[in-house]
Amino acid sequence: PYLCALLDDERVEGIGAGLLGEDFNYMSSDGNFYVGDTAWHSDGYKRPLGYRSIKLAFYLDSVGRDTGCLRIVPGSHRIGETYAEASHETIATSGANRTEEDWGIPGTDVPALPLEIEPGDLIVFNHRIKHASYGGGTRRRMFTINLQQRFREEDEQLLRDCISDLAGYWHERAYTPLMVETAGPNRMRHLEQRLVHDDHLPELVARARQKMNEPRRF
């Protein structure tokens, strides 16, 4: 219940409303111990055009350029522009680092902006932007919250397609029961659209279970 309530925090609410509109949708969240390097990737480069998705990330440990902080490639989120499209083609998208093969340099040498932070800082970035992490140890504790603009009625199928991504994680509903059961009216405003359009997930999950030995990981 405590972690679910992070969505209710006025600072999270204010960022979501300011960047996505007051009726933004909550997508998902996760907490991880990160170990080692994370190759260059986007969290959702091909997400529906016309809709912005963002990630709020906060660490419980100090992280610097050489100790696992987030690095981003500025401009790589501008889908449709030559630079962003070229970056997408030559930077890994599924965790397989191709930068040495394609560019002749290691991932650590890709020109990027390191976001060095201390506990208490919050990073907010577009899901389309290319990002990575290098030099981290075995205890980088990071929590994230993913938010998205509310979909227009005429784009209902786009929303359902976006929700379909959850099937690979074997999620049969858009949210866990606890997130919904502990929600007040304000939180429900950010949950209700995806809840209305997640009825296709059980069938997709059943298919995924036939093809996968275990669910995907965030």
Structure description:
This protein is α+β, with helices and mostly antiparallel strands. The strands form two sheets. It has a four-stranded antiparallel sheet. The protein is globular and about 45 Å long. The mean pLDDT is 91.
**Structural class by helix and strand composition:** alpha+beta
What is the CA-CA span between the terminal residues?
Answer: 21 Å
Strand content: 15-25%
Specify the overall morphology.
globular
Number of strands: 8
Which strands sit side by side, in order, in the main sheet? 1-8-3-6
Order of helices and strands: HEEEEHHEEEEHHHHH
Mean pLDDT: 91
- pLDDT < 50 runs, ≥5 residues: none
Helix count equals: 8
Would you kindly provide a brief summary of this structure?
With 218 residues, the chain is α+β, with helices and mostly antiparallel strands.
List keywords for this structure.
alpha+beta, 8 helices, 218 residues, globular, single chain
